[in-house]
Amino acid sequence: MKKFGKKILLDFILILLILAVSALGFVFLNKNGKAKTVVVSINGQDVAKYSLNVDTEVLLNSPETNGSNTLKIENSTASIISADCPDQICQKTGAIKNIGETIVCLPHKLVVRLEG
Fold this sequence. Notes:
By secondary structure, this protein is an alpha+beta fold. It is about 30% helix and about 40% strand. The protein has 2 domains: about 1-30; about 35-115, Sandwich (mini-chromosome maintenance (MCM) complex, domain 2). The chain is elongated. The model has no long low-confidence stretch (mean pLDDT about 90).
């Protein structure tokens, strides 16, 4: 019976250790905090950069697809507020604010990403 109790204790300690390492990893990955720059790419080419500190709305046209998206920068976040693509996934993504987050519109070959 003592072996069984010791095994449960060791399993519990192992689970706690894994959770602690995961929590530290999460804190480490998110330490960069909020982004400062919005980078817009169309068809794999960076076409524009905007500061997240300046509220603005920008119409983004994709020459290859003749489509358009409207990028809104407000309160240090970026979002696509309108698009003429069929699925509207870029709009449904919502606002992004942290380094590394992206909004993608595949029909228009558009990527909006945040950098530090």
